[in-house]
Here is the input.
Amino acid sequence: MRALLPQREGSVHRDGVEIFYEVYGESANNGTGVTTLVLIPPSPISHSRIWKALIPDFARRYRVVTIDGRGNGKSGRPTSVSDHTRAANVADIVAVLDATATERAVLVAHCHANWWAVELTSAHPERVAALIAIEPGVPYLGTPQPHWRAAAATWDKQLDHPTGWELFNRHVITNEHRRWIEFFFGAQLVEAHSTKQFEDAVSWAMESTGEILATSEEAQDLAPPTRQEFEAICRNIKVPTLVIHGDRDVCQHVDKGRHFAELTGGELVIIEGGGHLGLVRDPVRVNRAISDFVDRTFGAPMNSHVWTRGLSRRKKALYVSSPIGLGHVRRDLAIVSELRKLHPDLEIEWLAQDPVTVVLRNEGETVHPASDWLASESGHIASESCGHDLHCFQALRTMDEILVANFMIFQEVIEDGMYDLVVGDEAWDVDHYWHENPELKRGSHVWMTDFVGYIPMPDGGDHESYLTTDYNAEMIEHIAKFPRIRDRAIFVGNPVDVVPETFGTGLPNIRDWTEEHFDFSGYIGGFTPPTPDQVEQWRSELGYRDDEQICIITVGGSGVGQELLEMAIAAHPIARRSVPGLRTIAVAGPRIDPDGLPRHPGLEVRGYVHRLYRHLAVCDLAVVQGGLTTTMELTASKRPFIYFPLAHHFEQNFHVRHRLDQYGAGTYMDYATTDPDRLAAAIVRTIGQKVEYRDVETDGARRAAAMIAELV
Amino acid sequence: MRARYPDPEGTVVRDGVALGYEVFGEAPRADRPTILLLPTWTIIHTRFWKMQVPYLARHFHVVVYDGPGNGTSDRVTDPSRYTPQSYAADAAAVLDVCGVERAVAIGLSRGAWYALELAALRPDTIVGLVLVGPALPLAPALPHRAQIGDHFLDPAPQDPQGWDRYNLAYWHAHYDDFTQWFFEQVFSEPHSTKGLEDAVAWAKGAGPSMLEAEARERGPSRPAADLLAEIRCATLVVHGCDDLIQSHDVGVEAARLSGGTLISFDGSGHMPNLRDPVRFNRLVREFVERVA
Here is the structure.
């Protein structure tokens, strides 16, 4: 799912070619009138999605227009050389400026699109308010790069066994497009742990064709100015200029950026250690560099605010609670309640999103208004699931633009808010981007999680295990390099709950590493199970008779569970033959239409059940997914239950299952190999069974609060 | 020892009064305005900017000068030299002699009024204003100061309470007691002993006769609200929430009337530049960079 959708989109037609554009942030106004940023991708090797990590942050401050250059994205695919000249691209941009009623714009261009931006600025200075050149690909300037020069010499030749930069060849690009693209972006992404950026860049490039790419390469260099002429054009650029360049860029040498900044009298930001794709690889730094430049250049007024002297402040914490699963907010509220006993004067604000904010507001907690700006993580996760299947590792990977968008908001909140403490319960964005941009950390930081380590699903093969190993390695390197970012890391559980697996080839054992780097709070349920006396009382309050066998089927709040719900409903009449008086309650939840489900005697279908945990705590059997919160509630209440981890959900399949095994709790079943008959047999076997689970600790919230309190 | 000594320093004479000025940092540049740090009530002199000068001078061309009556300027008993307009004319003379064509003027307390008059006098030069704890009649006086002028010319009080000390005869008889007490009000923040010592020492440079001359100025002055409404340049107002000299409401009004930004310093008194220099300095730099 995208972090932000455009407010409108459209296209212009020039000489029979459609040029697509999107507009964001129409209502944004930075106080000096509307500033429009026009983002120009280096088409046709990429398209407007290359800006995905920057758009949400810009759109909150500025009006943003993105363009798909000719040859890629949603724009036309002309194939002749004359269609891909610089002049054609410049005219496209001007046409989009006109079509979007953009009188003057800040042009932001990447790589060779900067040559178009320069020519546009030179030909139409009245349309350009400022120029931001990211890794500019302009002719002549800087140091020549031998690999480009050698490749250009054989551009047209039929090579027998081309390798390396020889792949930059008309025939290879035309006939083996992907081979060139993978080589090229592999060479550009010099930064470690760039798997996601590589996949993105390749997939965007592959939306075009090799023929178009090769043609555009030839067209770009047609009718070039002389070196002297080009340098004069650069010197004549009078608009404010910012150049951002990685010093390990092998597409456009950093000296080119330096020289360009010098000629234009522009500002220069070097990203040391960065390659050619700073805008996707270091989006936080690039976002901030651009906003800072634009605000200074256009004299955006400062926001009025109150700054409180250090000694006049009350202690203040920002609690960031993950919206993926409602279990987080339940345990977070339990921790906060204990924390307030230790620090009654601590002010706590929450940065969270729907549906967590609903729970928080009901509890009378203070939800920071910036919460409304956050892009939906739970919406993304729901959109990534299909049937009884959620590849949650890939879902986290494809959530990258949402995480960076939300981090930018978090960082703004933390810089304005004078917080002493940040508690992040699986706040992946905070933890990841603070390690990537350690100079941005403010206040003490508590990181909290109930699992450590990405584990590949067996059917993902070598590639998935390569990816999980890479993600784990990045996390381990982050922690080793910047131990100051996590002032406290709390594992919600016990050491035995950590899987005895490896992080991947050449990496440590997950449990050993976690024991070294975490404190353990024990499980935190946010719920006290009933005593045996209360069980009877609750059952009668809820209308469950002693002579009934109550089976509850619940699949959580998302639409993911429909298939499991249907299978369990089909199992009910079969099981009822062997379990007289079987009464099954199927809870559809808010996203599944209860009227669309079949009916049977002894089966009740309900949409929403208030305080479902009370029902689960006294049932005779529950049939559930493999989520941690629900299964641990059942474990704590010592109820028999059958659980079906979602397919490809590594956390449910490995981490939760391992933890339940430590408690001796639950009956694991595999959805793919189960049918209603087999489920019915399992129901008959397990319903009403006396269980011997290990006790679930009830002091987890208190222990976690004590660990946090030391930092206040 | 000072953290930084002036690059050039000098004296400008306007209508027979010599005013000492100091210049820090590189020569003025077209793309970066000069920062002019204005004098305030003559009870203190330029050194009250001591925590700003070294930092700002690393980033900007900075000019500071003493108004009449204290520091390195002439001791003047003519009340007409203490009107806001006269201060503005002095400031313009200093800018001219320093070759400044674009400047952000920063004025504290009474200095805020001088800054407004200067912006009116030199609208093409002054591209930004920072008003710190402005002493402008824009909101009701704080309750303890409501009758402040009523007993100014009475005989000196025998057992003065609070603002009873705002009395000419008392100044002449008990100057040190007055300045000590006054700056205790200025620094409402705890742990302000050093600021207090400094300010009391700077006050010795003026003495009661200078304060008397200034107190007797009755020059024509335009309503502050009119001056603020006329301002075309960017304005930043900084005001302590615990300012016991000028109500925080004045800062709120100054920001509203000028269409500027208000940064409230919660827990701060009348001279946040001395008590919270880090926050203040960074704020000024950010503001001036945006104005540039």
Remarks:
- Chain A touches chain B at residues 295-296, 299-309, 311-313 (CB under 8 Å).
- The longest strand of chain A covers residues 17-24.
- The longest helix of chain A spans residues 461-481.
